[in-house]
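User: I'm writing a tutorial on reading structure tokens. Could you give me a worked example: one chain, its sequence, then its tokens, then a sentence or two explaining what the tokens reveal?
Assistant: Sure. Here is the example chain.
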Amino acid sequence: MSTTVTATRVGFGRTLHAEWIKLRSLRSTWYTIACLFAVGLGITALSSNSAGQAWETATEADRLAWDPTGRSLTVYIVAQLIVGVLGILVVTSEYATGLMGTTLTAMPRRTRVLAAKVVLATVIAVVAGEILMFGSFLISQPLMDRQGVPTAELGDPGVLPAVVAGGLYLGAIALLAIGLGVIMRATAGALATLVGIVFLVPAVAGIFPSWMEGLFQFWPTLGGSAALTTVPDPDFPHPWLNLAGMCVGVAAVLVAAFVAFRRRDV
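And here are its predicted structure tokens:
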């Protein structure tokens, strides 16, 4: 009784602070963030160094569609998986160690606990994602310029929104990962599902019936990532609408996660 009364008096700020203490105490959190920047920036440097060869062998149509901004931001393809791992671990690490039961004993208000995890992971993912996107852009453009291929600057039309969209996209992927982690309560299952969503489905999108094409307008790695480019794509003429639609889908997964989190015993 006293525990419940005390818990109800604990504000959201303290719950958020408690979740931050738990998250920062996990070495996996820092390893994942370090991996995000090391792998992400490394891939950016490698892909930028091959831009000259790609430009030389490009057809006239390819050169007209050349997008130096989009090329520098393709790191999102790998980064979304790493950010997804971070989002999943925010939840499943407590299930794996049995700490979730202790957390819910200390704070019976499950919605508040999960909301704190969501807010914390979103802030971390968006901040890290924006740093990665801006870093990738600023690293790749000089490397491409040395090879004599077209480049871009942050002040060019559409460039800054595309770079910012990259960080927002990764934040949405982190939220999707949290939702999957809550629903499945297991790191392996949630990660396998995330891989299927961001890699497998886009790879085999052509085999799905035509009536599903509308869904792919908002799918991660497909329409959802269209805002990360500056050259218009005829398949996705409204990139920010595509990204917004993806966020709506992520929100639906989160709603299902909140419902499941409240109804389960642990």
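What the tokens reveal: The chain has a mean pLDDT of 91. The radius of gyration is 20 Å.
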